[in-house]
Amino acid sequence: MKVFINKRIPEVGINMLQEAGLQIVFPESENLTYEEWLKYCQNTDVILNVGGDFKYDKVFFDSCPTIKAIALYSVGFDHVDVKEANVRNIPIGNTPDVLSRATSDVAFLLMQSVARRASYNFQKVKEGNWGAFDPLHALGQELYGKTLGVFGLGRIGFQMAEKCKKAFDMEIIYNNRHRNEEAERELDATYVTFDELIRNSDILSVHANYTPEHKDLFNQSVFEKMNSDAIFINTARGGFHQEQDLYHALTEGKIWGAGLDVTNPEPMSADNPILELSNVCVLPHIGSATVEARNGMARLAAGNLIAFSKGEVMPNCVNPDVYSHHSS
């Protein structure tokens, strides 16, 4: 079975695939055009996809009839039209759990960086603009006893809430598709409506899976309802927030600060005015960028394809119903 991997992944995953007897195809260049990428996909059996450069939509599936399975090197699968994959009985694998701690670490880091204006102050040091002591200049805020609001209290959201509870004794409120009884029991988390979430959060952290109906969910009308001292954190997907509305909310004092590991669009332009604000910290989508998390993702992605090659169910499959179609 031939596997196309569009970008290099940690050796642990490559070794697993080779030991399982799968033939790996890497592109000559990792900066592929859509047409070049499509050509590679048309000449393979299964794909291990890294990144979200291109969409797995109807056009793709129509153009690549030989594809039998796709393993994503990510938790998110918003760049895959799962309904189209289902029509063709193509299982889609992802990599949950292994990056939950690393991604929640970044959310926790962003929250503190924004609260203490770390990026702004670091830039002052780099520019030799330390300046004399000013008791009132660019003050931050403390996080002790504040209310953390989590939009999407799944694995990553739980880890973020747990850190905030233990480090700063924060109150935890959340909005989710379903109640999280574990969080309510262990973290004393309280389920609230979306409107209650945005009105009552001192820190609002986004951790939900992104779907098209979430596009620009956090926009002007939402930011205007938030606490003027609130910090907005997004480590999920840039599509959740309307970036121009966020900029205006920050400059007009509707909210206090923002920490982003994802942007809209992504990557963010270097001349984006949001980068000039002292109450903002932006990172280049590094949520899973640890040796431990990336190795874990490689193992899961490879494991999904190895299982498929043996006629077994992918251990981490986002559309497991396709297997009932295979067996019927």
Largest beta-sheet characterization: 7 strands, parallel
Shape: globular
Portion of residues in beta strands equals: 5-15%
N-end to C-end Cα span: 23 Å
Major sheet: arrangement of strands:
8-7-6-9-10-11-12
Radius of gyration based on Cα positions: 22 Å
Spell the H/E element sequence. Answer: EHEHEHEHEHHEHEHEHEHEHEEHH
Q: Roughly what percent helix?
A: 25-40%
Structure annotation, total helices: 13
Number of strands: 12
Q: Which structural class matches the secondary elements?
A: alpha/beta
Give the uncertain stretches in residue-range form: none
Q: Kindly state the mean pLDDT as a whole number?
A: 96
Structure keywords:
five-stranded parallel β-sheet; 328 residues; globular; 37% helix; 13 helices; alpha/beta
Can you characterise this structure?
With 328 residues, the chain is an alpha/beta fold. Helix content is 37%, strand content 13%. It has helices at residues 11-19, 34-42, 58-63, 82-87, 100-115, 118-126, 155-168, 181-186, 194-200, 220-225, 243-251, 291-309, 322-327; strands at 2-5, 23-25, 46-49, 69-72, 92-93, 147-151, 171-175, 190-191, 203-206, 231-234, 257-260, 280-282. The strands form 2 sheets. Strands 8-7-6-9-10-11-12 form a 7-stranded parallel beta sheet, sandwiched between helices. The protein has a 5-stranded parallel beta sheet with strand order 2-1-3-4-5, with helices on one face. Helix 7 links the parallel strand 6 and strand 7 (171-175). Helix 1 runs parallel beside helix 12 and helix 5 crosses helix 7. The chain is globular, with a radius of gyration of 22 Å. It starts with a strand and ends with a helix. The relative contact order is 0.16. The model has no long low-confidence stretch (mean pLDDT 96). It catalyses: (R)-glycerate + NADP(+) = 3-hydroxypyruvate + NADPH + H(+); (R)-glycerate + NAD(+) = 3-hydroxypyruvate + NADH + H(+); glycolate + NADP(+) = glyoxylate + NADPH + H(+). Its EC number is 1.1.1.79, 1.1.1.81. One of its GO terms (cellular component) is cytosol. Belongs to the D-isomer specific 2-hydroxyacid dehydrogenase family. GhrB subfamily. It holds the Pfam family 2-Hacid_dh.
